[in-house]
Amino acid sequence: MAVGIKVRDKESIDRALRRFKRAVNRSRVLRTYRENMAFTKPSEERRLARQKAARNARRHRRY
C-alpha cells in the first residue's frame, strides 16, 4: 500500500508535499495503521458496527 507522487516540473516542494498528504489521506493508510495499533475484541467491533448502523439508519430516516 505504498503511496507516492512524482514532483512535476517547476513544482515547489511545498505543493508536492501537500499533494502527497492528500494522497495519503485518500488512501486511508494512516487510518488502517492506527486501527492495527491495538487489538479490538470482536464483541467491541460488533458493538461499534451496531452503533454505526443505527447512526446511518437515523440519518437516512431524516430524508
Molecular structure report:
The chain has helices at 13-27, 29-35, 42-62. The longest helix has 21 residues, at 42-62. It has three helices and no strands. With 63 residues, it is mainly α. It starts with 12 loop residues before the first helix and ends with a helix. The protein has one domain (13-62). Helix content is 68%, strand content 0%.
What's the short story on this structure?
The chain is mostly helical and 63 residues long.
Q: How many strands in all?
A: 0
Oligomer: single chain
The percentage of residues in β strands lies in under 5%
In helices, the fraction of residues equals: 55-70%
Query: What number of structural domains do the residues give?
Result: 1
Q: What is the CA-based Rg, rounded?
A: 18 Å
| Distinct helical segment count | 3
Helix and strand run: HHH
Largest pleated sheet:
none
Detail the poorly predicted runs.
none
Measure the end-to-end span: 37 Å
Structural class: mainly alpha
Shape: elongated
The overall pLDDT average reads 93
